[in-house]
Amino acid sequence: MKKVCIVGCGDGGIMLANRLIKNKEFEITLIDSQTMHYFQPWQLHMAFEGKKEKSIEKRKLLPSKAKLIIKKAKEVDLDNRHIKLEDDTKLQYDFVVIDTGSRGDYDKIPGHKALHDRFGDFHSGSEEASKLWNNVKAFKGGNVIIGPTYPIYKCPPSPVEAVLMFEEYANNKRIREKTNITFITPFPRPYPAEPMNEIVEPIMKSRKIEIATFYDVEEIDIKNQTIKSIEGDALKYDLAALVPPHAGSNIVKDYCDDDGFVKTNKETLLIGDYDDAYCIGDATNIQTSKSGVTVHLESKVVAQRLNGEDAKFNGRTHCPLEVGYSKATFVIGSYTEPVVKLKPSRFNYFMKMNMKYFAWQTLKGKMDWFIDSYFDTTNPHKLNSKINNPKAQN
Description:
By secondary structure, this protein is α/β, with parallel strands linked by helices. The protein is 30% helix and 24% strand.
């Protein structure tokens, strides 16, 4: 039996375990410090619509033959093929897959931890999302600032979704006229990928949302309720929901970058020159979307490679982006294909909202037949060709 250890039991780890269990040559062990699994995209709806948490025990999502250890992993030693746990015990492996995700680093920006404690946010967990909802409900008007504070964060569409969902809330509650909404971003445009920005920016402007680009947050002054930038600008707030800088777990000795993300080959998903160590999901330093869809596809590649196939990850993304008022689009692209300029629609919103009903079945691998077909139909090359050359499709 070959021992496969999956460090981290998030979306990727769960999907990988369910894929590998079919191979009787593998003995699968997952390591995680938490017993519960959360549907993270739902935090936006908790924070701006007051929805209830969607969660389940991790054990219920895993195959019965997979072992789950509820302990924190401290370090992975690639040279000696062992994982050190919080109690200093060591687990040996034949193959290891890192899926430790990312975390908000609130200490990176002075004052951010205090802001988070005051308002909550939509990136840290259910408790924080509920706290933000309580602040949103109590808001009667004033200055609102929403956006990312640092270039590295998970779920690229989420800050845009947040500001558009809040604008809809303020409009429906008839406090929009006495509310000034500003979207801040360290990037030169509201959405980093230009084709999608051609959709997002006009929507923001049509809803009179102010946009502050190249806004690199240096400090948050809680006493004076001001968000200051490195460039010397300052914005006053009465309510703020900011995405924190994200950092990796720094778990792989000598193979993490300055932000703690694992240095990973963008195609093979191997770590360094090792042929027995992989990394997937938010934990990698790969320049692609840190999202559930990305790790879904990465876990499939790793499963294929462990089963002897020469599979490679093509950088495919397919992230839902809700624009408010029951419309949504998807951010679809790959390493070789630019993001598709896909117009928002009610059908896309329907697709996004129904994901919550299939989330657990997807993690168990029971929706692969549908997802594989859907991803083939929405191949970014096909969609870009159709949009850019409509006559060629006739």
